[in-house]
């Protein structure tokens, strides 16, 4: 399978290839040039974010989780729970990138709630930011469904580029040894 650097190149190259493809597709489906440009930027940004920071290889101790700097620990439970290379949970095309996004949201919420509880024990009250974020995301999905859909498509393609590269490499290495 390709190393992290090769996966990064694949992510950037496929992201660059998505620019004209998504722009032309969005124009074809009736978007104005301005909206097509913004949605293309959103799609490619989500693709890069997913492929580089939310890589399928977060299921192992690798350069990928080190990119999270002091927050690398966020991904430790994910590593322990998700079998490396699992098509269902880490290296599939659609469900795994969305699972990583959901996992990140849940862990972030739990960390916030834990910190708020600890601060509450010493008399410091923290506003209910976690509920505000949930409300914001619900409102975003209701008022900006196209943008949410474009973001999710880009996020899925970023993970899929990695998984497809692994599958192609595995297939070709198996063919060489026959």
Write the layout of secondary structure elements.
Layout: H1 4-28, H2 33-52, H3 63-66, H4 76-81, H5 95-121, H6 129-143, H7 145-176
Write out key terms for the chains shown.
single chain; 178 residues; mainly alpha
Quick recap:
With 178 residues, this protein is mostly helical. The protein has helices spanning 4-28, 33-52, 63-66, 76-81, 95-121, 129-143, 145-176.
Describe the structure.
- The chain is flat and about 55 Å long.
- Helices cover 72% and strands 0% of the residues.
- It has helices at residues 4-28, 33-52, 63-66, 76-81, 95-121, 129-143, 145-176.
- The mean pLDDT is 93.
- It has 178 residues and is an all-alpha fold.
- Helix 1 (4-28) crosses helix 7 (145-176).
- It has one domain (4-176).
**Terminal residue distance:** 18 Å
Q: Give the helix level as a range of percent.
A: over 70%
Please give the number of β-strands: 0
Estimated share of beta-strand residues: under 5%
- What is the string of helix and strand elements? HHHHHHH
The radius of gyration over CA amounts to 19 Å
Structural domains: how many: 1
**Major sheet: size, sense and barrel closure?**
none
Assembly state (oligomeric)? single chain
Helix/sheet category:
mainly alpha
């Amino acid at each position: 399978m390709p190393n992290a650097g090769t996966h990064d190149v694949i992510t950037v190259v496929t992201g660059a290839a998505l620019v004209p493809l998504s722009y032309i597709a969005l124009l074809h489906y009736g978007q104005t040039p301005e909206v097509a440009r913004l949605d293309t930027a959103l799609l490619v940004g989500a693709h890069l974010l997913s492929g580089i920071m939310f890589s399928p290889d977060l299921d192992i101790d690798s350069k990928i989780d080190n990119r999270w700097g002091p927050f690398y620990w966020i991904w430790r439970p994910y590593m322990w729970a998700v079998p490396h290379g699992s098509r269902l949970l880490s290296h599939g095309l659609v469900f795994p990138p969305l699972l990583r996004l959901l996992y990140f949201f849940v862990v972030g919420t739990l960390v916030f709630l834990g910190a708020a509880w600890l601060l509450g024990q010493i008399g410091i009250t923290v506003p209910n930011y976690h509920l505000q974020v949930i409300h914001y995301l619900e409102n975003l999905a209701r008022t900006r469904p196209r943008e949410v859909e474009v973001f999710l498509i880009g996020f899925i393609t970023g993970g899929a580029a990695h998984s497809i590269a692994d599958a192609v490499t595995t297939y070709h290495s198996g063919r060489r040894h026959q």
